[in-house]
Here is the input.
Amino acid sequence: MIKWTRYLGFTTLVLAVCLAIFIPATTWMHRQVKNAQGIHDSRMAPIILVPGSSATQNRFNSLVTTLNQRTQGHSKLLVTVKTDGTLTTQGHIAPRDFEPYIVIAFENNQDGYNNIKKQAKWFSLAFNELSAKYHFNHFNAIGHSNGGLILTLFLTKYAKQSAVTMNKLMTIGTPYNLEESNSHNRTQMLTDLIKARNQLPKSLTVYSLAGTQTYDDDGIVPLASVECGKYIFQHQVKHYTQITVSGDQANHSDLPQNQEIEGYIQQYMLTQPNQAGVHADISK
Amino acid sequence: MQKWLQQTFHPLMPVVLIGTAAQAMLFSVFSTTGFFAEIFNLSKWLPGFRLLHDGFGLLTTYTIGLLGLLTAIFAARAITHREAQHAAIIAGIAYLILNTSRMTNFGPNIGVSGLLFGLLFGSLVGWWFNHLPKAFATVSTLLLTIVTRLSWDHATATHVLAFNAPRGSWLLPLNSLFGWLGLPTPIDVMMPMLTGTKATANLNAALAHHPLPNPMTIGTIYRPYAMFGGVGMTLGLLIAILLVDQRVNKRRLAWWSLPMSLVNLNLPLLLGYPILLQPLMLIPFVCAPLASCAIAWSALALHFMSAAVYQVPATTPGVMIAWLSTDGNWPALLVTILCLVVSVLIYLPFVKKVSGGERLD
Here is the structure.
């Protein structure tokens, strides 16, 4: 009996010592790896903006102008992807600007699921070219309307092939269930996205912003369709936040110029709001 | 042969134990790159960290830092029939004369790396004293060493001797063989881990979420899975001793070497059990690491676990290296446990054989 309790005491002691080493060692290692990741990550982390259907590369000009009145030193590069996959660009990224805005629009900017799939493919082409040219390996992205769908599709389909990580995604008035206002009627696209959701990066933070003019929609996109984003992101990415904006300029087309939304972008998406010494001339 | 080794190393065991313990403290606790220093950030808050570092450093230097010299002295003492004291002193002086040369970097050395040279040299001097008159043996030994030392200096001046770190999978059995001979091992346990060019390429790929360019290297297989307790998977030996060896002195040795084995220092076991130059023990000493390598290689080839890429301190307990350097990969931990179990099983029959019939209480 005495021997038995001695063994038990001894085993407990050994286990306690093991845990006392094991746990701090593991947390220390996680910290080390995180630091190494931080050092490895490029300093350049652009904010990539994708407009919705029927919109051109100039869709976010007003947004960027406003943001640049509030912050300092973010230049703007406008990119349009042609149907053959080639790029035309306007503007440039200023030296020492580690957080420029890159707008990626499409020559074929039509609506429809088939077209959105094509646009996601074009986006990945442009993205790979830009990430190689400007040497970035992580970025944040903002998509307005269908732009959010293109980014989500890109994440599920193409992002794994590239070595670039999306840290944060903000979708503004993005119809995850297209025009369908009943979330029980899932469109083919939503079904596909839900099926492919396990491809989404686990470290991603997602903000889904919805506008409302009435209690149900922003004039074009039903609130229920935006809210369907939860079926894709919730329990899949690190954080998924849904924000509903109402009031002045809350209809679908005005959302990128909505004062509240501009505030959210400034607050959530800009990691280095004021970059001293960068001469970003975005008047062009 | 057995008696000679035993008589040489038995009186040295206290020095070896104290020295290795000091070395373990120095490397794992009181060095900024030590395992415990890193995980508990000891250098920042522990009072007297520098002082203790210096203290344990000195203690290490004056014990196992002199082990080559002490081995030469005690080997001469063990061999010589008459005038053993005198032969031992002459062997010590002669060994020191040899060590004034620049050759000490890769020749005889007064530290641990001079273990085999010390043993051979001391024995030679002892043999010399057994066959020649005392006065002649003394003078000739000293003269010969002085001449050798001078000619060596000439040799090093004319031939640039450069040892490149050898590579290739034949290194794996060779590492054990070198350890068994008492020579410095090509893959040293206290070498910084995962810092080479291949490991750096792996690390960069891992951080970029790319597939690894060099998944099968010494850094991803041998270091994390085949060096528990030091060269030769001696943690497996230690557990095997505690399981089946009934000899009280060997069990005590095993318990005392346990803390040092946890930070991969196995000199007490090597000299005390002993393994050094024991033909029978060479078999598990070579086979246990090879078996572990085979297991780890298979697990990597089958993509059962992720490869070790992240740098960890050399004094990280052997069984935690894989877990930490994969940043917490559970399959890697399972493979670690499997490797340990297999190495215990490999050592078991040999420990049984060595300890069999000898039940001295």
